[in-house]
Amino acid sequence: MSANRPAAVVVLAAGEGTRMKSATPKVLHAICGRSLVGHVVAASRDLSPEHLVVVVGHAREQVQAHLADVDPSVRTAVQHEQNGTGHAVRMGLEELSADGAALDGTVVVVCGDTPLLTGETLRKLSETHAAEGNAVTVLSAEVPDSTGYGRIVRDAGGAVTAIVEHKDATDSQRAIREINSGVFAFDGRLLTDALGKVRTDNSQGEEYLTDVLGILREAGHRVGAAVADDHREILGINNRVQLAQARRLLNDRLLELAMLAGVTVVDPATTWIDVSVEFEPDAVVQPGTQLLGATRVGAGAEVGPNSRLSDTVVGADAVVSFTVADGARVGDGASVGPYAYLRPGSELGPRAKAGTYVEMKNASIGEGTKVPHLSYVGDATIGEFTNIGAASVFVNYDGEAKHHTTVGSHCKTGSDNMFVAPVTIGDGAYTAAGSVITKDVPPGSLAVARGQQRNIEGWVARKRPGSAAAQAASTARQESEGER
Ligand code: UD1
Ligand code: CA
Q1: Could you tell me where the beta strands, DSSP code E, fall in 45-177?
Q2: For 101, 208, 285, 332, which has the most beta carbons within 10 A of its beta carbon?
Q3: Taking the model in full, what pTM does it have?
Q4: How far apart are CA 389 and CA 374, in angstroms?
Q5: How far apart are CA 154 and CA 113, in angstroms?
């Protein structure tokens, strides 16, 4: 494969993408957790090119900053005016040669708006290019609707003779289904020479990269085409309808890989995952689930239905249902939801539980510890095998600063407790229901922090005479007297 290692890959990403109707530059729109240009750069990296340059123009500071973030080794070249794809490639090559890069070998050109293109297809293109000894090989595809694309024109013998842009094509050329994907492999030296000969006498007054093919052929060089196996792979994104189509296709591809690797995806149509998501075998994804960023689902774990997990690690055999989680870690065999919200820094130990209507943030709960119902656990550390009563709040904010609460192991806290941080509950301690805990509780103690109950006998009969309540109370009194 190293024999086919290209001298350079040039990614074209200077266009504005007006049809997106967006404040965000087209190539920075994202599908499956990665920008369009990020996908193209990742596929290009698969070829291990000596140089990788992205031609930027429209909103270039933004695009450059993004690229520096996703792949710091990417070079950028600036195309100040978008004078066409040929001009853009020229800018890319000038940037590289200004730096002394010898472009003797193969130069691959790809567009920044074709996120479904795979490294495998790029490799096949390079292989065909080398095997046929071509000066240029275009990646073509047979598409159901060729509107808008450059058409591949072949002679009677089937040899490629030219690429004609839709706007410049005759009616019979427009009937051609084989189109230019915008991806090429070139002989670097011949490309540089031919770009100097590209004219602008076309309907758009631009330097077309596609004209290089005809120029090289007329100069007696071999030109060829490699037909893509799957035309959907070269889908170029020009508007948000195509953006959604590409997202769907890429998502299907990612889910297919996951399923073939042993993951059960109950409903691929309503399951959305990012490229960076990882699974272990026998993970199960229930319908309506989004798995984003660096999310990882362990062996035998079940996530969903109707959940969104971002940057969250789910341990083996854990169950996470109807949950929103962001930056959380869920231990092996732990249980989350239904209706839980795990915010950044939530950590559940093995077989721990964050149950129904439970919110956690910056809190870790140990092995077997349960927070089953209606609670907020913020800025807390809870030990092992502790049970937190229903409707408890870890009162972490005094209006100015956040404070920490520590609860030990094997504690049983009552329902409707407020733990007013900073406060510490010792191992094995109990707290009474309805307590507002403001002072530390020593290990093994029972804390009771609530008003004493007082019963005012006969109050209803005196204050609400004749009411249904008074009547019911009187009947109850008579019955209990009768029993005696
Ligand atoms: C281009 C091809 C067409 C092909 C189609 C595939 C040419 C002349 N036409 O048409 O044959 O079927 O792609 O999708 O090459 N760009 C720049 N600078 C420019 C112009 C464009 O960097 O001056 C970049 C754009 O950002 C984009 C790519 O080049 O990433 C393609 O440009 P676009 O305007 O989308 O070309 P198409 O009209 O789609
Ligand atoms: Ca395009």
Answers
A1: 51-56, 75-78, 106-111, 136-142, 151-154, 160-164
A2: 285
A3: 0.93
A4: 9
A5: 26
Per the structure block, which two tokens stand in for 241? Answer: 């309808």
User: Could you tell me whether strands 436-437 and 418-420 are parallel, antiparallel, or unpaired per DSSP bridges?
Assistant: parallel
The number of angstroms, rounded, from the C-alpha of 205 to the middle of its chain's C-alpha atoms is 39
Q: How far is the CA of 283 from the centre of ligand 1 (A)?
A: 41
Q: So what's the pLDDT on residue 3?
A: 59
* Centre of ligand 1 from the C-alpha of residue 353, in Å: 53
Are 422 and 405 in contact by the 8 Å Cβ rule? The answer is: yes
**Rounded CA gap, 8 and 185, in Å?**
10
- Determine the Cα–Cα distance for residues 414 and 387; give it in Å rounded to an integer: 9
- Is 129 an annotated catalytic residue? no
| Helix, strand and coil percent figures for the chain, each rounded to 5 | 25, 30, 40
Give the residues of the chain that fall short of pLDDT 70.
Answer: 1-3
DSSP string computed for 340-355:
EEE-TTEEE-TT-EEE
- Across-strand partners of 336? 320, 354
Q: DSSP labels for 382-435?
A: E-SS-EEPSS-EEE-B-SS-B--EEE-SS-EEPSS-EEESSEEE-TT-EE-TT-
Task: Enumerate residues lining ligand 1, CB below 6 A.
Answer: 12-15, 55, 79, 82-85, 87-88, 111-113, 149-150, 163, 165, 179-182, 208-210, 236
Beta bridge partners of 431: 413, 447
Q: Which structure tokens are listed for 92?
A: 């890319």
Report the alpha-carbon distance of residue 348 to residue 334 in Å, rounded.
Answer: 7
Specify the 3-state DSSP secondary structure of 189. helix
Whole-number pLDDT of residue 478:
95
Q: What is the pLDDT of residue 484?
A: 73
Residue 248: how many CA atoms within 13 Å on its side-chain side?
10
Of 44, 53, 85, the residue with max ligand 1 atoms within 8 A of its CB, to mutate for a pocket test, comes to 85
The predicted structure's pLDDT at residue 1: 44
Q: How far is CA 102 from CA 2, 94, 188, in A?
A: 17, 11, 9
Task: Find tokens 């994804």 and name the residue.
Answer: 285
Quick: pLDDT tens for 15-67: 989 999 999 999 999 999 999 999 999 999 999 999 999 999 999 999 999 99
CA-CA-CA-CA dihedral for 62, 64, 65, 68, to nearest 10: 160
Half-sphere exposure of 334 (CA within 13 A, CB side): 34
